[in-house]
Design goal:
By secondary structure, the chain is an alpha/beta fold. It has ten helices and 14 strands.
């Protein structure tokens, strides 16, 4: 049996945010959260009872240890993290807003310890000792060496017969749609589960039409057995090469939008790990809704709560 249920590789970050009504240039304090798309996914899966490992690189300073401590609370295995005596952590800033302004994100991610990670520093035995390897397109544009690592990870997993999950996670502040499309097409061909939102499919590949038509067009780029497309506020659609499954979004009072996509991915994988892809889509819309209802990138929940809410459509006081 593999050591892990899910392994992943990604950057740990600190998120500094100011509330709606405040402007960045005048704020005198920030709320601080720990973030990282791949660790958000694996951290939630760990909280749901799966054994998960995370590879990253962090500087051995208070900020790096702050990130480590947060993921320890999620019970992620951090034994393969590469620690450096120099370098810095990635930071991003969020300025929340209400209409007519949009919430804005500013990245400060250059020359971090993680961006300098090389293929030689990866513990490949650790990464591939798993039932599933999860990767993200958000990591690819951060540096040339990280692009090589993601491609090599997918290649090695395929050679070993380890299924690969890949979340496109396009970010316009990191690269252009054309650059992203060119870089990820080789990765698409190696994956078993592909997550690509409707907006990303439209921006990067020019795909349009009904959700089913967009998924069908994506299938021409990948050999993935499962394709999952987020429809934003409408829910998600999944395809297992035989049947389409649509799940409408759950009703939610939105507190914080950031991290909902990662929570959705975790929910789908939670079902897939149980051998039930269709149920995974139901988990996915639920965990996305739960993430929208909480502050911070990481969804704090537990398996018992998720199971109880999966079949509940009432909101009341729990006494």
């Amino acid at each position: 049996m593999p050591r892990f249920d899910v392994t992943t590789i990604g950057e740990g970050q600190l998120r500094y945010c100011v509330p709606a009504g405040k402007r960045m240039e005048q704020v005198n304090r920030f709320d601080v959260f720990v973030s990282g798309t791949e660790a958000n996914v694996s951290g939630l899966l760990s909280r749901l009872g799966w054994n998960c490992g995370w590879i990253s690189s962090l500087p051995n300073n208070p900020l790096g240890r702050r990130i480590r401590n947060e993921y320890r609370l999620a019970q992620l295995d951090l034994s393969a993290v590469v620690w450096t005596e120099t370098g810095r952590v990635a930071i991003y800033y969020v300025e929340y807003a209400v209409p007519p302004r949009a919430t804005t994100v500013f990245y400060d991610r250059k020359d971090t310890s993680f961006t300098k990670l090389t293929t030689e520093q990866i513990d490949w035995d650790y990464l591939l000792d798993t039932r599933l390897l999860h990767l993200s397109g958000l990591t690819v544009p951060l540096s040339k060496s990280l692009q090589e690592i993601v491609i090599e990870a997918a290649r090695r997993a395929k050679a070993k017969g380890v299924p690969v999950s890949f979340d496109m996670n396009y970010r316009s502040r990191l690269w252009t749609p054309q650059e992203a499309a060119e870089a990820v097409k080789p990765i698409f061909k190696t994956v078993d589960l592909l997550f690509c939102g409707r907006g990303d499919a439209q921006r990067m590949f020019g795909f349009d039409g009904t959700p089913e038509e967009i998924v069908t067009q994506l299938s021409q780029l990948t050999g993935a057995k499962y394709i999952i497309t987020s429809l934003s506020g409408e829910g998600i659609i999944g395809w297992d090469r035989q049947n389409f499954y649509r799940q409408p979004a759950r009703e939610v009072g939105i507190v914080d939008r950031i991290g909902a996509g990662d929570a959705m991915v975790s929910g789908v994988l939670h079902g897939w790990l149980q051998g039930d892809f269709a149920k995974g889509l139901r988990y996915g819309v639920l965990t996305a809704a739960l993430a929208l209802s909480q502050w911070g990138d990481q969804l704090i929940t537990r398996a018992a709560e998720v199971e109880a809410l999966l079949t509940s459509d009432t909101v009341d006081i729990s006494r």
